[in-house]
Design brief:
The protein is of the alpha/beta class. The chain is built from nine helices and five strands. The protein has a single domain, classed as P-loop containing nucleotide triphosphate hydrolases (Rossmann fold). It is globular, with a radius of gyration of 17 Å.
């Protein structure tokens, strides 16, 4: 039986961590849809036309090195504003969302465009400063040089582009439950997400049992 969990929100709010934990908890499949746009962005940086890259995307493209790097994130946010790129990635995401056994998809437009019928919708967010601090700590933790103000301005640039585009902008679905992780630990954020999903599963079961 299909059960879709849509998890949207801005960069570095904790969506990925929450999504993986929720998928493991409920035994659902997980798709990080940002990776699709990152793979297209990476191919654009290598000289391929982004629409062509989206139309010919292969599973191997999602395993390539460098997809998490910041230049690829900015390229992903740029190609994500091209309607033909989004259209090319739509069917794959919709089929994944409705697969049997349950699915968690995280991204920007899952609850609004990809799967408006999702049984559970979460909007995971945090202040820009908190998100930049997490990203900065992650980079310096890996021994990479990073400048906090630069990381913060990258976060704000990507937010503005993702929220400001006309096609499928980042915004909470009307029926999404917002989880602001600014003052939460990872385990608190995961517990909050699990509680919402358990409620939705119960509602669905109650409805089906008449
Ligand atoms: O979640 P992420 O940081 O990996 O996403 C990279 C970029 O891809 C993000 O800045 C906007 C775009 N994106 C999107 O437009 N729609 C999605 N469902 C997922 C990501």
């Amino acid at each position: 039986m299909a059960f879709t969990v849509a998890i949207d929100g801005p960069a570095a709010a904790g969506k990925g961590t929450v999504s993986r934990a929720v998928a493991a908890h409920f035994g659902f499949a997980h798709l990080d849809t940002g990776l699709l746009y990152r793979a297209v962005g990476q191919r654009m940086l290598e000289g391929t036309d982004p629409v062509e890259a989206a139309l010919t995307l292969r599973a191997e493209d999602l395993d390539r090195e460098g997809l998490r790097a910041d230049p690829v994130a900015q390229a992903a946010s740029k190609v994500a504003a091209i309607p033909e790129v989004r259209a090319a990635l739509l069917d794959f995401q919709r089929a994944f969302a409705r697969r049997a056994g349950g699915a968690v998809l995280d991204g920007r437009d899952i609850g609004t465009v990809i799967c408006p019928e999702a049984e559970a919708k979460l909007f995971v967010t945090a202040s820009a400063e908190t998100r930049a601090r997490r990203r900065f700590d992650e980079l310096t933790g890996k021994g990479e040089a990073a400048d906090f103000d630069r990381v913060l301005s990258d976060v704000r640039t990507r937010d503005a582009r993702d929220m400001g585009r006309p096609d499928a902008p980042l915004k909470p679905a009307r029926d999404a439950v917002e989880i602001d992780t600014s003052e939460m630990s990872i385990s608190q954020a995961v517990a909050a997400a699990i509680a919402v999903i358990e409620d939705r599963i119960k509602e669905r079961n109650d409805h089906e049992n008449g």
